[in-house]
Design goal:
2 domains; six-stranded parallel beta sheet
Length: about 300
Amino acid sequence: MKSFQTVCIDIEASPLLGGTLIAITEGVVEFGFISICMYSNSMNEIDVKSINSILLMALDIEGVVGSSYSFRDETKISYGSCIKHIHINNGRVIDSPARLVEIAANNQIRQVLKFKPEIYLSAIEKLRVKKNDDYLVFHANLTKKLKIFSHQSKKLSMGIERSWAKAIKRFVSGKFGVPVSLIGTDAKHFRKFDLGEIHNTYTNGLNLSEQLSLVAKSKGFVGMSSGPSVIALFSSTPYYIFKDLNHHKAQMDRELGQENGYAFSLSTQFYVREYPSSKILYESMNSIVSGGKSWHT
């Protein structure tokens, strides 16, 4: 077996999926082959099912040879090969690609998060789409967004659902000939809407690895800044990733300034700091498919 380092992730300080994917990217860029260890100091509010899913997902990424979860010094879950833990985060919160921006000039950042080929083949088989199909992937992150906004206004949370549904339906009915895939649990929020012909990863039983592999291979990704969007961020996939302007504002001001992407982003990749209207969502989809000028310049 090739030599590798173990990357430790404090799951109480970092976003669970997004933080893990960013840590994996850092580790693969620096060391080539890694094992990951997710740890916490208490079991309070720890979702063991989600952790287990992420640990298994990590093993499907090229360059990851092992994964484990530790509570204090007792290993609860372990897969693959794990060795003495070496912290590459030095106690900092892994919740943004800021450190990768610093090393982007000397390393190839894009397409670091590569899933093993058989994962993608399994995904398209379950969705019953062709291997070489160009398709768009959407992730509105509605489960989290609606939980946040429902405390403020039921009308506002319903408006968010309608904006995404309207944009997706308009795109699907536009006869672009481009299949649409919904990932995550978004699909259950869209059941009440007639969106037309879409590929639903939730009802087709795709696991986390299979859903994320679709993002890496897609014609484009449109979605909110969240765990799955990290896959697009470190790929050559064209994307429009949206983030609420006031969410992590100081951090985003520091990392992006007035730019609409990171130092390693391609000209077809946009990180937009605003919550999108239905019109903006549709124009983003259209821009990716047509290969034309972006509405966001």
